[in-house]
Recover the amino acids of this structure.
């Protein structure tokens, strides 16, 4: 699991918002991906990838991600496991982290 809080210096544009949109675009394009809105955010979303990433010699890796932003801080949560990641896991992690922003 990896949690990133990235703070931007937003002088001329909303960089945190743009980074959030870019992350969501790429996460949503993977096949076998379902997504849900994150409560308490304007456009935050959580993604669960039901198809694992596979590489020769490695166990399959399932993933889930969550992206949101508030002000100049962008939240990124990345979870990987050898078993499918439940929706409840990524939603709970995102909600707990958003409470701290």
């Amino acid at each position: 699991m990896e949690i990133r809080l990235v703070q931007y210096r937003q002088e001329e544009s909303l960089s945190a918002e743009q980074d959030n949109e870019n992350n969501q675009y790429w996460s949503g394009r993977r096949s076998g991906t379902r997504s849900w809105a994150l409560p308490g955010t304007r456009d935050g979303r959580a993604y669960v990838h039901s198809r694992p990433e596979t590489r020769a010699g490695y166990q399959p890796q399932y993933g889930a991600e969550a992206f949101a932003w508030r002000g100049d801080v962008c939240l990124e949560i990345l979870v990987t496991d050898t078993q499918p990641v439940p929706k409840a896991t990524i939603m709970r992690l995102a909600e707990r982290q958003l409470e701290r922003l």
